[in-house]
Amino acid sequence: MSGALSIRYPIQIHFYDVDPMNVVWHGNYVRFMEAARVALIAQIGYGYAEMNVSGYMWPIVDMRIKYIRPLLLQQPVIIEATVKEFEHRLVIDYHFIDEKTGQLLTKATTTQVAVKVGNTTMDMECPEDFVNRMRRYLESQSC
Length: 143
Description:
Blueprint: E1 6-12, H1 28-42, H2 48-54, E2 56-57, E3 60-67, E4 76-85, E5 90-98, E6 104-112, E7 115-116, H3 128-141
């Protein structure tokens, strides 16, 4: 997607991801989303180490998941993760797509807020370092 920070993150469904019916256990979606989110934000050089150096942590304050079709054992899946908001909070949309058919399997959204390390108060805007990294990335994509 042009004009947005996004990634297509491939996952493979393994035996340890599924329940006795060979369907991905619902709690594993969160783990898959975390892996895609880490890869997504790494594109602007803002991983966990950089977050720590900046003095902020990013707790998830809202998560929504809409299960449309099950993820199955050995199914190749692409997670399309896209940053939707980043100036006052970080909102990421996720689409789980069957790699072979292109069929949408699951939709999800996470909302994170910046919290200064050692403080329990949410900042009402994202740290300047993060916002600047996002803007630089988006500017580089519009050229």
